[in-house]
Write a structure and sequence with these properties.
Layout lengths: L3 E6 L3 H12 L1 H8 L3 E7 L13 E3 L2 H6 L5 E4 L6 H11 L3 E4 L2 H18 L3 E2 L10 H8 L5 E7 L2 H13 L3 H11 L7 H4 L2 H15 L9 E2 L7 H9 L2 E11 L4 E11 L11 E8 L3 E8 L3 H20 L27 E11 L4 H11 L4 E6 L8 E8 L2 E2 H12 L4 E10 L4
Helix pairs in contact: 1-12, 2-12, 4-5, 5-10, 7-8, 13-14
Length: 433
């Protein structure tokens, strides 16, 4: 049987990991693919000491790989959304299958890329774009294909999860842990994509497209980061029986589809609440199977390489069977099937509220009255004793489920009370049951 020939573009952390795993586990991989898979060319400006290319040719111009008539599958691991997009489209135009780990590229330009791939009769695979080594894309496409997915929630950024874990376990402040995350290589010098939720939003869009059969709509994701989470909120969450996680949540409701990334309080007894450090996890609720949890390493050279190579194997099997495969996303194309994307102000959830109040009778009654007028009830309460005759005390509430815009309106009224000092901190609460 004719071998499947692979060209790898990018020889950084994931590129070198992919080369090493494909080389080291060649016998097992070929046996599972049912066909020999050979790396015949690498596109990279320089070699990486982390891997020995041996006799594999390296070219500085990655577009040479895209135009090489011998290459059957191009593996894009250069990152970014400009050159990477041009490279992928050129490979598709040349009739090559593409495997990528580039979540930003898929989230922002996937609609165009998949349309081009369908026209050309080639596959674009992207398992490694979400949650590193966790095979969540395959789970949604294949393992859960019989289900109507009701919702999914994921810890899909290891940097943010590491920071929140350290804050909880050691009582550290956000900025302190962020510096350590940068020193350890978990966070970039500019950590915005990780800590402000942009990276997670890219991944959530991809998951939602697969789960609900909708076009990729990165601009529809509500995104809120973790930089404003204070150690006291982490402590109060634990006191209430919750943990704070930075979640990507996609939910299909009668009112529309929710796409949101934000800090979320979830019951400490949930399995996903106990996913710590840099690990990732995705919880998916299907109507037939119920909740299923997928856990593992969300980044790193070889965990991500594992997902990249799984896609290469799938493409190789298809090539060996003489089929081109199909585009991996199934969108609703008819106008009357286009789902309504629910804006954040229309989303319903419960809330944690923390405020600084004057230590005098009637304060809680005033706050409760404002919430009641918005049809929001108080489900739990923590009121601390004043410290050293301080005139102000922290007041912590858990509310019933409420529409976001109603809760925000109530917060404005609470903040306007003379007995409340400063802003009211709010964190959304999900049961994930």
């Amino acid at each position: 049987m004719k071998p499947v020939k692979v060209g790898i573009c990018g020889l950084g952390t994931v590129g070198s990991g992919t080369f090493n795993v494909l080389t080291r586990n060649k016998r097992e991989i070929n046996a599972r693919a049912g066909v020999e898979i050979n790396i015949i060319q690498v596109g990279a400006r320089r070699e990486n000491p982390a891997c020995d290319l041996g006799g594999v040719a390296r070219v500085a111009d990655i577009f040479e790989v895209a135009r090489n008539p011998e290459v059957d599958v191009l593996v894009e691991l250069i990152g970014g959304t400009t050159v990477a997009k041009d490279l992928v489209l050129e490979a598709i135009a040349q009739g090559k299958h593409v495997v990528t780990a580039n979540k930003a590229l898929i989230a922002e330009h996937g609609n165009e890329i998949f349309a081009r791939a369908k026209e050309a009769g080639v596959q674009v695979m992207f398992e490694a774009a979400v949650a590193g080594g966790i095979p969540i894309i395959k789970a949604l496409r294949e393992g859960l294909s019989a289900n109507k997915v009701e919702w999914l929630a994921g810890i899909i950024n290891g940097t943010g999860n590491f920071i929140l874990t350290e804050m909880r376990d050691k009582g550290r402040a956000f900025e302190d842990v962020l510096k350590e995350a940068q020193a350890l290589g978990y966070a970039e010098a500019d950590p915005t994509f990780d800590v402000e939720g942009i990276d997670a939003a890219h991944k959530l869009v991809i998951l939602a497209s697969l789960a609900f059969g909708i076009p990729l709509q990165f601009d529809k994701v509500f995104t809120e980061g973790i930089s404003n989470i204070a150690p006291e909120d982490v402590d109060y969450a634990q006191e209430l029986g919750y943990r704070i996680k930075h979640l990507g949540i996609a939910r299909q409701t009668a009112a529309g589809i929710e796409l949101r990334v934000h800090p979320t309080m979830i019951p400490a007894k949930r399995l996903i609440a106990n996913v710590d450090g840099v690990m990732n996890a995705v919880l998916v609720k299907g109507d037939a199977v119920g909740p299923t949890l997928y856990y593992g390493a969300g980044a790193g050279a070889e965990p991500t390489a594992s997902a990249v190579i799984a896609d290469v194997v799938d493409v190789a099997r298809s090539c060996a069977q003489g089929g081109a495969g199909v585009a991996p996303l199934a969108f609703h194309n008819a106008a009357d099937q286009t789902p309504n994307m629910l804006p954040m102000e229309q989303v319903e959830t419960a809330y944690y509220l923390r405020m600084v109040a004057e230590d005098r009778p009637g304060v809680l009654a005033q706050v409760s009255t404002i919430l009641a007028e918005a049809n929001i009830s108080v489900e739990a309460l923590i009121q601390k004793e004043p410290q050293q005759d301080a005139p102000q005390v922290p007041l912590i509430l858990l509310t019933s489920r409420a529409i976001e815009h109603q809760l925000m309106s109530a917060i404005e009224k609470i903040e306007a009370l003379p007995v409340i000092h400063g802003d009211v901190v709010h964190i959304r609460v999900e049961s994930l049951g």
